[in-house]
Structures are given as structure tokens and as C-alpha cells.
């Protein structure tokens, strides 16, 4: 009987497959996003690169889970796979928060070329989506809402800087639903925020309400976080 392939080789194969071709577009979007972050940071951040790879892998897994659910109606024959997906999703949130947090600290320094708004607002931030410093602050805060629950089992308190614009507030307030979904709902391909299989129920202090944030939606918010922001280099 042949030896089974090693876990290391299996992971390499899974990542290779995830990048080509189904998730190739996502990977390209990550490359462009990481290049923007590298310009702001002045150096490459290996943690950001790892988060990109993990996101591509998780999206491929999430597609597989949706197919499995469509075929079987449940995941009772693959609970180990679902547990691993849950664990890797948590690691993705923690890693993504960390590279956004360290970049936000760096870009907030008044000497940084993108920190004009910090100098003008006494370090509070203007909050505008077109401001690089605040745009990175916003996606850091969105990630912090989930990260605090996963890492500390606490509500996120440090998310009010930069302030939300009225348009952002209205968009978040219109997000469905405000009630915790039953556990089974987390396994539905569902609508809106529930898409993406893995989702978390968190309290958002900025709008004084609970929200359901799916991993896929959070990933999209991060990837779209710099849309419309002027390109400014740290060099
Ligand atoms: Zn700003």
C-alpha cells in the first residue's frame, strides 16, 4: 500500500490549486493591494503576504463547502474539515488585524507623507474614505471588531478613531441582521452578510449595535479599503 502524501505536500498542493485558476483574480487583487501597503510602509510586510495566501486558500475552501452543502445538505461527514476551516479563519483574522494595526501606527506618525490629516485633526483623523491614513484605520477597525472577540472574548473598544463618515454609518446601520443567527445559519450560503460560510456576531460600538460579519465580507472590505485613495509613497 503506497504511503499517503505528507500534510506539508497536501497544503502546498491545496494552495497551488487555490491560486490557479479559480481564485487567480482574488490573488491578483491581493498583489495590487499589498503593493499599495508596501508603498505606505516603505518595506514588504511578510505577515500581509501570508494573510493574502491564507485568504485565497480559505476562499477556495469556502467554495468547496458551499458545493458540499448544495450536494449533501450538511457537513456531518466532514466535521474535521470544518473545524480546520474555523481555526484557519480565526488565524486569518488575527494576522490580518496585526499587519493593519502596525501599518496604521506607522502611517499615523506626523512625519509620514500620508499623515496630513493627523497633523490637521490633532491625531483624531478626518475619517474620509479618500484619506489613506483613515482608510487603513477603518479596515483595521472593521477587523478589530472580530479580532477582539476571537483573541480576547471582549468587545472592541478602541475602534472610534478615525470617526465614521455619515455615509459609512448609514451603510453599517442598514446591514442585516442585528440578532444572533442560530448556529445552523452559519452553515447556510444565505444572503448579504451571511455569505462566505464563516461569520461572527460582534458588537460595533461606533453604531451601538450588534452586527454579523462574515469572513468573506471582511476580506472584501479589506481588499476594497484603499479604493479611491490617492497613491502616496513612504519613500
Ligand atoms: Zn484622514
Structure description:
It is a single chain. The chain is mainly alpha-helical and 235 residues long. The protein has one domain. Helix content is 56%, strand content 5%. The protein is built from eight helices and two strands. A two-stranded antiparallel ribbon has the order 1-2. Strand 1 and strand 2 form a beta hairpin. The longest helix is centred in the middle third of the chain and has 30 residues. 30% of the residues are buried. The structure holds zinc ion (ZN). Zinc ion binds next to helix 6. The site of zinc ion has 8 residues, from helix 6.
Q: Could you list some keywords that capture this structure?
A:
single chain, 235 residues, 8 helices, 56% helix, binds zinc ion
Q: What's the topology here?
A:
Blueprint: H1 7-19, H2 24-41, H3 46-72, H4 79-108, H5 116-120, H6 132-152, H7 166-173, E1 199-204, E2 209-214, H8 215-223
Antiparallel strand pairs: 1-2
Helix pairs in contact: 1-3, 2-3, 3-4, 4-6
This protein binds zinc ion.
> Would you tell me the structural class of the helices and strands?
mainly alpha
Q: State the shape.
A: globular
Percent helix range: 55-70%
In sequence order, what are the helices and strands, one letter per element? HHHHHHHEEH
User: What integer is the average pLDDT?
Assistant: 85
Low-confidence stretches: 187-195
SS field, number of helical segments: 8
Proportion of residues in β-strands = 5-15%
Kindly provide the radius of gyration, computed on alpha-carbon positions and rounded to a whole number of angstroms: 19 Å
> What small molecules accompany the polymer chains?
zinc ion
CA(first)-CA(last) distance: 58 Å
Amino acid at each position: 500500500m503506497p504511503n499517503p502524501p505528507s500534510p506539508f505536500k497536501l497544503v502546498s498542493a491545496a494552495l497551488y490549486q487555490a491560486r490557479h485558476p479559480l481564485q487567480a483574480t482574488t490573488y491578483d487583487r491581493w498583489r495590487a493591494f499589498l503593493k499599495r501597503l508596501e508603498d505606505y510602509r516603505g518595506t514588504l510586510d511578510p505577515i500581509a503576504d501570508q494573510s493574502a495566501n491564507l485568504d485565497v486558500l480559505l476562499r477556495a475552501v469556502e467554495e468547496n463547502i458551499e458545493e458540499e452543502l448544495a450536494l449533501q445538505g450538511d457537513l456531518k461527514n466532514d466535521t474535521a474539515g470544518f473545524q480546520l476551516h474555523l481555526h484557519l479563519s480565526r488565524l486569518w483574522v488575527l494576522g490580518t488585524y496585526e499587519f493593519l494595526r502596525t501599518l496604521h501606527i506607522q502611517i499615523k506618525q506626523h512625519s509620514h507623507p500620508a499623515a496630513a490629516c493627523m497633523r490637521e485633526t490633532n491625531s483624531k483623523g478626518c475619517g474620509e474614505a479618500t484619506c489613506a491614513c483613515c482608510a487603513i484605520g477603518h479596515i483595521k477597525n472593521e477587523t478589530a471588531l472580530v479580532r477582539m472577540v476571537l483573541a480576547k472574548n471582549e468587545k472592541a473598544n478602541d475602534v472610534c478613531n478615525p470617526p465614521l463618515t455619515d455615509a459609512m454609518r448609514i451603510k453599517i446601520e442598514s446591514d442585516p441582521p442585528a440578532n444572533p443567527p442560530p448556529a445552523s445559519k452559519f452553515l447556510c450560503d444565505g444572503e448579504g452578510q451571511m455569505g462566505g460560510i464563516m461569520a461572527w456576531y460582534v458588537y460595533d460600538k461606533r453604531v451601538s449595535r450588534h452586527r454579523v460579519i462574515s469572513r468573506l465580507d471582511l476580506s472584501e472590505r479589506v481588499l476594497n479599503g484603499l479604493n479611491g485613495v490617492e497613491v502616496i509613497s513612504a519613500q
